[in-house]
Amino acid sequence: MSALFLALGAAAFGLMALSDALTVLYKRPWGGRLFAAGGALLALSTAGLLALRGLPRLRALGWWALAALVLALLGYTLLAALHAGGSGALPPRPGALRPLVDTGVYALCRHPGVLWLGGFYLFAWLAAGGAALLAAFALYTALDALYVLWQDRVIFPVSIEHYAAYRRSTPFLLPTAASLRRCLATLSVKSNGKRTDPKG
């Protein structure tokens, strides 16, 4: 059963990549539905893997709290930090460039969602144990990294304004001291979803 859930989760990343290709490269507006389907499939996979581990262990509440924290950060990164029309989770309308968001968590690195998603599965495994959750951590983090690499090289340069400059100013996945300072400096400033000049 765990293998089935892992396969469903892996398929979710394929659906999201297909959604980007259809919407951005082939100008098919309905392709965005596949992104939502991929997200639902990943959630179903995760729920199934957690259900196989049974009830949460009280002694692991600290790990569960960390898992909940990074999950909240993932939601913030993909939704609130981008605002409507930001540079983020859902593909843009065909033919329209999205404004660049390079402040807050998007000053930390170009794809902070990979860090939060990987962190969630890591902390869930530390909390609940089991080879399947460890496999989910390794597999889903690797697939997510490949997915955002494809977005970074193929999708976002043709769908987000000034993305080439953003790539030069902000690390791909691993934050640096400079990007951390920029992130902290801009978190208190309410982003309006428009581009600010990247500072390297």
Query: Order of SSEs, N→C?
Result: HHHHHHHH
Strand-pairing-aware structural class: mainly alpha
Mass-distribution shape = globular
**Largest β sheet strand count, sense and barrel closure:** none
Number of helices: 8
Assembly state (oligomeric): single chain
Strand fraction band?
Answer: under 5%
Give Rg in angstroms: 17 Å
- Global mean pLDDT: 88
- What is the share of helical residues? 55-70%
The low-confidence runs, each spanning 5 or more residues with pLDDT under 50, are: 84-92, 191-200
| Euclidean distance between termini CA atoms | 47 Å
Please report the total strand number as a whole number: 0
Task: Give a quick precis of the structure.
Helix content is 64%, strand content 0%.
Describe the overall structure.
By secondary structure, the protein is mostly helical. The chain is built from eight helices and no strands. Mean pLDDT is 88; it is low at 84-92 and 191-200.
